[in-house]
Amino acid sequence: MALDGITIAALAYELKNILTNGRITKIAQPEKDELLLTIKQSISDGTGNTLRFQKRLTASVNPSLPLLYINDENKQSPMSAPTFCMVLRKHLNNCRITNISQEGLERVIKLELEHLDEMGDLCRKFLIIELMGKHSNIIFCDDNNKIIDSIKHISLLVSSVREVLPGRDYFIPDTQNKFDPFTITEKEFTDIVLAKPASIAKALYTSLTGFSPVMSEELIYISSLSGKNSTAELTEMEKLHLYRNFMGIMEQVKEACFKPCIIYKDNEPVEFSCIPLTMYSDDSSYQVKACESTSQMLCSYYSAKEIISRIRQKSYDLRKITNTALERVRKKYDLQSKQLKDTTKRDKYKVYGELLTTYGYELKGGEKSFTCENYYTNEEITIPLDETMGAVDNAKRFFEKYAKLKRTFEALNIQIEETKQEISHLESISNALDIAGNEEDLAIIRRELSEYGYMKRQASGQGKGSKKQAKSKPLHYISSDGFDIYVGKNNYQNDELTFKVATGNDWWFHAKASAGSHVIVKTEGKELPDRSFEEAARLAAYYSKAKEQGKAEIDYIQKKHVKKPNGSKPGFVVYYTNYSMTIDTDISGIKEVQE
């Protein structure tokens, strides 16, 4: 979700409480569209002591990811400061922040600043940060709203709505004719906004400033309506109900009742909000994680998104190789299965040959077929003949067909088993790519694909026998009863967990007939409670291809009964006696250990 007006309101409230009366001691511009302000603050603790602390405010107006947040991270600045940075240093060195505010519910935050000019007189300036997608900008103005400079210069050649150049008047463009959510009346809401010929959700977010599609869906959800329905379907009572719930949300914003949180699905962040999103509460596949501050929410959300995006991008070539190989091997399996089906008529040719050997003396020559009694079934059977051959030669021809199909049958059974194992191996690699959380995980998968001939070995050498190989640790969880649970992220880890980490009486879990991780529970000689069995099974279900189904059948057995055939591929094991359970894939309550 992009930054909406409500998130900006929460951010402005947070910045105002933390940074007001602080002094800007350092100004840097690490990137062409990013500003980093170092702010020092002094606060009395009420006992005569003064507490001093330092904060860094990062403002990015990158078109694809505009962002504003407080953090402690410093960034290296270029050797030569850009012009905008030099202008700010000239005017704002050691200036004091007197106020931080938001314009209505616009995605705009204004920093009011006081500083002494060259004559020692007190002056007031404004640093305006606009977080409006591709139109984002940082604009520096004087107390008459004249633009002194901006991080992006916008001329009339670029925008016909507004020039952002030194000397021009600053204003927020109002081209969408949206209502201010703080001032909209009931009549405007019901008679204009909800009269638009569109879905309810679209009518809301296209008519209200700073009101995002997600917040529109939340308003509709708490009003017990469907966002896909048209506004024309609303009754007067439903319109009034929507308005009252809308006013309830705006009251939370006015009173600064913000509760920053991130919504996760399958350990991946999907949404963030400063107002509780109850529409996710009824779906157990979503997990809500509260955050200490709006800045922490934004940092956590976008950091996680960046990591996931980067890993997906870096794994693209591996996924393509794996999927291409899987498609090829599955086609081979289909062809082999079809050929195997054709060999089912081999016994018929054997019977033809035996019957011709027994009754062939009755043939005079030149016949196209021969009818006789099949002594295996005591029924009549008609045998097609080659009229140019005698009975003995026809029988020989049928025996040769039988022998050829028998050899084909035996060879295909071996080949099909090898093909099935190759499919299973590639599916396990595909599953490992889904689990991979860092570049070390991808390096191990790349090495496996190289070792088994699916891609060329890299010159740097991550192949078999390489001294320097990527290190990657398995996932580590603690069950509710205090038992260590380990989850392999790739086939090599699966082998190591099962045959090196686990001891004989430890428990081993795996999704039945599905590619997935080996899950090991270390028992330390103790009896495993039912709850720990279920939690380990959930992890085995979650980290498998069966995860998409919501439920999975899990095999579990003590490690001493799990064997690895000689020469088998990594991650491949066999077992003959096991227990099974069907369980869901929800792992939200299982504690993960970060190592």
How would you characterize this protein structure?
The chain has 595 residues and is an alpha+beta fold. It has helices spanning 5-19, 83-92, 186-191, 200-205, 213-222, 236-254, 294-314, 316-342, 346-359, 391-435, 439-451, 491-501, 530-542, and strands spanning 23-31, 34-44, 50-62, 65-71, 96-102, 108-116, 122-130, 137-142, 147-150, 261-265, 268-273, 286-290, 369-374, 379-384, 475-478, 484-487, 507-511, 519-522, 551-558, 579-584, 591-592. It has 13 helices and 21 strands. A hairpin with a 4-residue loop joins strand 13 and strand 14. Helix 9 (346-359) packs antiparallel against helix 10 (391-435). The longest helix is centred in the C-terminal third of the chain and has 45 residues, at 391-435. 31% of the residues are buried. The model is unreliable at 460-468 (pLDDT under 50).
Structural class of the secondary structure composition?
alpha+beta
Strand composition percent: 15-25%
User: How many β-strands, per DSSP?
Assistant: 21
General form:
elongated
pLDDT below 50 for ≥5 consecutive residues: which ranges?
460-468
- Helix content, binned percent: 25-40%
Strand order of the largest sheet: 20-19-17-18-16-15-21
Distance between the termini: 30 Å
Number of helices: 13
Largest sheet at a glance? 7 strands, antiparallel
What is the alpha-carbon Rg in Å?
36 Å
Oligomer: single chain
Write down the overall mean pLDDT: 90
